[in-house]
Amino acid sequence: QVQLVESGGGLVQRGGSLRLSCVASGSIANIGIVGWYRQAPGNQREMVATITSGGSTNYADSVKGRFTISRDNAKNTVYLQMNSLKPEDTAVFYCNAYVRRTGSLRFVEYWGQGTQVTVST
Fold first, then answer.
1. φ/ψ of residue 26, rounded to 5
2. Can you tell me the mean pLDDT for 81-91?
3. How far apart are CA 93 and CA 77, in angstroms?
4. pLDDT at position 20, please?
5. Which residues pair with 24 in a beta bridge?
6. Which residues make beta-bridge pairs with 70?
7. Quick one: average pLDDT of 74-89?
8. How many separate helices (H) and strands (E) can be counted in the chain?
9. How many Å apart are CA 82 and CA 89, to the nearest integer?
10. Cβ contacts of residue 15 below 8 Å, gap of 6+?
């Protein structure tokens, strides 16, 4: 089994910062692309940022220049540094990863349980 566990969410004022973390655990041989997604009430889940195993990143236009995704492959951990937060960033943030389990040849997609981020005005 593989588990993704997010942490770091909370309540912050407009203009503030938060750092989300996502730790992958289990029988992991390799982690491919990982990303952060978010879902606000009444909206579809959307991509926020992704990072490949080689460190290439991709961001949604709405967060470019404010959010930074990074990963520590030795710790099986991905981070999302969020600065200059806006009320419209309020959402549940989910970690997503493609993981190859020990003894397997293929990558399987996994999701975390989500962490709430609320930005007040």
1. 125, -165
2. 98
3. 15
4. 98
5. 4
6. 79
7. 98
8. 0, 11
9. 10
10. 84, 85
Average pLDDT over residues 20-48: 97
Comparing CA positions, the residue from 23, 29, 48 lying closest to residue 101 is: 29
Alpha-carbon Rg for the chain in angstroms: 14
pLDDT-derived band at 108 (thresholds 50, 70, 90) equals: very high
Mean pLDDT, rounded, of the chain:
97
Place of tokens 């959307």: 46
Phi (first) and psi of residue 88, to 5 degrees: -70, -5
